[in-house]
Amino acid sequence: MLINQGFDQASEDQWPKQDCSQAQYSASSDSALAKTSRFGSACYKFLRPYAVQQAIISAICLFARVLVENPQFFKWPLMFKTFPGLVTIILAHAYYIGLNQIYDADIDRVNKPYLPIPTGELSDRQAWFLTTGAIHNVGILYATRASIGLPFWWSPPIVFITTFVTLFFVVISITKDLTDVEGDMKHNIQTFAAIFGLRKIAFFCTGILLVNYMGAIAAAIYLPQVFKRYLMLPAHSIFPLWLLFQVRKLDKENYSKLSIPRSSCAVPSTIPQRLKSSSCNDNRLKLIKPTTAKNNVKSSNVFPSKRPTNKSNLIPARLGKSRFSKSLLYCQLHERNSIEVRAEVESGGDSDSVFAKISRFGSTYYKFMRPYGMLYAIISATCLFARVFIEDPRLFTWSVLFKAFCGLIACIFAGAYVNGINQIYDIDIDRVNKAYLSIPAGDLSLTQAWFLVMFDLAASVLILRFMKPDLITTSLAFLFLFLGTFYSAPPFRFKRSSIATIIVLPLASCVIHNVGILYTTRASLGLPFLWSPPVVFITTFGTLFSMVLSITKDIVDVKGDMKFNIRTFAAIFGSRNIAFVGTVLLLVNYTGAIVAGIYMPRAFKCYLMLPAHAIFGLLLLFQVRKLDKENYTKEASENFYQFLWKLRILEFFLFPFI
C-alpha cells in the first residue's frame, strides 16, 4: 500500500538488487559523471537514509514547536541560522552511522551484505574519509530557545517528547537485532534477540510501546490544560492498534527474516539462502534451502488460485531494476510469496481451519480495498476534522468525536465501494496492468467481489442514515457515490475519456470530500460553513493535486490502456511528457502555497508554509530526476505515483497547523 505504506523508509535499503549495480559498471561507466553518480549513490546508502530522515524531521518539528508556542519571535535571520544547525545534525548522524558500518564490516557481510562496504562500493579508506536521541531533543530545543533569547524550560510537552522518544529508542535499540541473529551469533555478539529469541523480544518491546502509548493517553486525560486531547487521544489510540496488527502479522509469519522488513520485495542475489524460523519452541533463525517456483502451494477452497506458475511470471518480483523496490506491485508480489512460504510451513492440516480461512479472507479484503486509498481517506478526513477544533478548541465534546468516528467509518466503506467497483469493471485491463490485484490474481471470484462491494455500499449508507445528516451532507455523499460508480461502470464509464477523468476524479476525491467533511463538522457544531482562506487553499491545492494524480496514474498502465482502447493522456502523449507536465503543475501548486504564506501572514503561518512547501518541492524534483534516470520503467513509474500520494498525505498532515 501507499500506503504501507506509508511510512517504509526504514526498509528502503533492505534488499537491493544487484542488476542495477552490474549495469552501472558497463563500458560507459568510465566517465567522470558516471563515477561521480556512483559515488554519490554509495554515499547516500552509507548515510542509512531512514536514520538521517528521522533526524531531519525530528529536528524540524522540535524547532517548529518553539515557534508555535512563541510565534512573535519568528524572523528570517533565525530561519537561516537554523539551516547550518540542521546540516550539523545530519553530519553528526552520518559520523556515528559510518563508524558503526566500518567496525561492523565483517558482521554486515552476513547480516547486511547490501551495504556499501560489504558490496565493495566503498573502500575502507573512502568510508573513513566520509566518517572523518535524548541529547538530540534537548540540544535542539535548547539551541532554538537560546537563539531567540529565551531560557530553556522543562515544560510538560518537552518532558513528554523526551521521555516518550527515549523509551521508543530503547525499543528500537533492542528490536534492530531481530534480523541480525545469524551474523551476531557467528561473531559472538550477545544481543537480546540472540539470547532470548525473536518472539520474546518482539512481545517484550510491544509491551513497552503499549505502556508508552497508554502514558500519552493518560497525560492527555489528566493534563487537559497542557495537551490537546482531541489530538493526543485519537492519535495514540490508532498507533497502538497499528502496532498490534503488525506484531500479529509478524507472529503469523513465524518471525522469518522476510517478514521483518515488510517492504522488501525481492531477495538479492548475494544472499544464497533464505532465513526462516524453525519450530514454535525455538525462535532462533535457521538456514533452509530456498524454495523454487515448482513448490507451489495448494490454493484454499475459499480463494482458488488462478495465477500462472511458470518462471516468466516470477521475473518481475525477482529481477526488478530498481535498487530500492517499494512499489505497490512489487510489495503485493512479495506479500504473496511470504504467504506461500508460510503456507508451506503450516501445511500440516491446520491450514483448512476456520481461523485460517477468516484470516485469508481478511487479508484479501484488505488488498481489495486498495489500502493506500483508504489511508488517504482516513488521514485527510481526520486532519480536516481536527482543523475545526484547532481553530476553536472550546467546541470539542466527546459526543462530536463519537459522531465523527462513525462518519470516518462511512467514508472508509464508501471509498472501498468505489475502489471495488473499479476493479470489477476493469478486470480485463488489470490482468495486463495490475495482475497482483485480488480478482486477476484469483484471490477473489467475481461473485465474492460483488458481495463485498454491495456490503461496502450498504454499510456506508446505513451509517450515514444512523447519523441523521442534513440534506446537504446527504446530497454530497450520494454525489460522491454516483461519480465513483459511473467513473468505472457503464453507461457513462467516465474513465474512457481523459477530459472526463481529470474532471470527475478531482471533483469526487477533493472538492466533495474536503467540503463535505468540513461542512459536516461545522454543521454538527451548529456553525455555518465558511470559505476561509485555509479552506480555499486546501480545496484549490487538493484539486490541482488530484488533477495531477488523475493523469500520472496512467503512466504505469499504458500497455493495458492501449490494448483496450482507453484514451489516457499517458497513452496519447507518452509517460515522459505526462510526468513533466504533472511535475510543473505541482511546482506551481507549491509556489502558490509559498506566495500565500508570504502575502497573507494573518491567514497563514508563514514559518510553516514556507519551509514545508519548499522541502516538498525539492523532494518532488529529486523523485522526478530519479524516474527519468530509470527511463520510466513500470516499477519506477509505480514508485513515482506512490510518492505523489505520500506528498498529498503530507499536505493534509500540515493543514491543521498552517
From TrEMBL:
Q: Which residues cross the membrane?
A: 50-68, 80-98, 152-175, 201-223, 372-390, 396-420, 441-465, 471-487, 499-519, 531-556, 577-600, 606-624
Keywords, comma-separated and alphabetical: Chloroplast, Membrane, Plastid, Transferase, Transit peptide, Transmembrane, Transmembrane helix
Protein name according to UniProt: Homogentisate phytyltransferase 2
Which GO cellular component terms are attached? chloroplast membrane
Q: Which PANTHER family match?
A: HOMOGENTISATE SOLANESYLTRANSFERASE, CHLOROPLASTIC
A Pfam family: UbiA
Localization of this protein = Plastid, Chloroplast membrane
Q: Which GO terms describe its molecular function?
A: transferase activity, transferring alkyl or aryl (other than methyl) groups
> What is the organism of origin for this protein?
Morus notabilis
The answer to whether keyword Transferase applies is: yes
Q: What is its main location?
A: plastid
Membrane-protein topology: Multi-pass membrane protein
Could you tell me the superkingdom of the organism this chain comes from? Eukaryota
> Where does the record place a coiled coil?
none
The UniProt entry, under Gene3D superfamilies, shows: UbiA prenyltransferase (1.10.357.140)
Q: Establish whether keyword Transferase is in the entry.
A: yes
Similarity section: Belongs to the UbiA prenyltransferase family.
